[in-house]
Amino acid sequence: MQVSIACTDQHLKSRNGDHSKQNATSPNVVNAARAKFRTVAIIARSFGSFTPRHHISLKESTGKYTGMKYRNLGKSGLRVSCLGLGTWVTFGGQISDEVAEQLMTIAYESGINLFDTAEVYAAGKAEVILGNIIKKKCWRYVSVAETERGLSRKHIIEGLKGSLQRMQLEYVDVVFANRPDNNTPMEEIVRAMTHVINQGMAMYWGTSRWTAMEIMEAYSVARQFNLIPPVCEQAEYHLFQREKVEVQLPELYHKIGVGAMTWSPLACGIITGKYENGIPESSRASMKSYQWLKEKIVSEDGRKQQAKLKELGHIAEKLGCTLPQLAVAWCLRNEGVSSVLLGTSNAEQLTENLGAIQVLPKMTSHMVSEIDHILGNRPYSRKDFRS
């Protein structure tokens, strides 16, 4: 029962620009801007041969100076970096404001244009820190993800307004409905999301931790009432959590264009190997609020996972990379994954994880099969049974 928002660097306006002369959320201003974008899009398409919408090719591109990969968010026109920076636990909690600024600077200069945060992260402090850094750096383009409580029309609109104020932003590119709300009708949720988009507070909306059936229901409601459907689902995805992203979401991606923005690629640090010999004092699992993570690590399944990670470590050595880089690249090789959110507490971790971009070309079908053999948890889809 939460709402999450994301905003990309493609659409954020500079705080030093002339936006103060006009109210950016004014319907007339927003509609005029959209009309211009539509005109530009139509002219641009006229230079090439027309491609039917369902056959459109959404190609990955590479940043000229950073090497960062950029992909469409689902089958929408929004381009996001294939790696994003998350702020859960870290911003306003585990790290200082200075370290937060250092991490965002490294990420931004490395080509990342997607930042994820939430109202509930450090009780709103994470949003404030994020907004202050963006303002201080005078960054024209960034992407933010935000979380509020409740999915009623009231909560979505008021929550998003509050988040924008804390981050000192005029709008975000994507607002995510985090966790389904059984107390709110689906039509009300979709209408509220359509409203904040039409008001210029967000450009797209997506879901987080929803089932495939719930996403399809939202899509059906949007089509029935001529509203705006979701373009993306946020889901947990890593070497030990595969079912949803590899079986359920690909079908949604191909049928209705819903992509995946995944989080926790290192399984809350488990895949880094730092828990191989116990729980380090400075680790997340040592924190009182993460007792569940500690129990997971010391369980029988946790010990089996550590054994598999040792084997995967040999593959990483063979590829000339670290285990975290292998794990992140493995997530990126999935067709429907638009972006993978990274969660790091220091510059060394972030720099290491960014190196996954160089490992991605090495994720051949043979290498993926070798990893699958070690993991022994590859989920089977309808496609597998048909073949």
TrEMBL record:
Ranges annotated as spanning the membrane: none
GO CC annotation terms, alphabetical: cytoplasm; juxtaparanode region of axon; voltage-gated potassium channel complex
Keyword Hydrolase: no
Locations listed in the record: Cell membrane; Cytoplasm
Catalytic reaction(s) noted: a primary alcohol + NADP(+) = an aldehyde + NADPH + H(+); a secondary alcohol + NADP(+) = a ketone + NADPH + H(+)
GO molecular function: oxidoreductase activity; potassium channel regulator activity; transmembrane transporter binding; voltage-gated potassium channel activity
Main localization of the protein described in the UniProt heading: membrane
Listed PANTHER family: HYPERKINETIC, ISOFORM M, VOLTAGE-GATED POTASSIUM CHANNEL SUBUNIT BETA-1
Family of the protein in this entry: Belongs to the shaker potassium channel beta subunit family.
Listed name of the protein: Voltage-gated potassium channel subunit beta-1
UniProt source species: Denticeps clupeoides
Gene from which the chain derives: KCNAB1
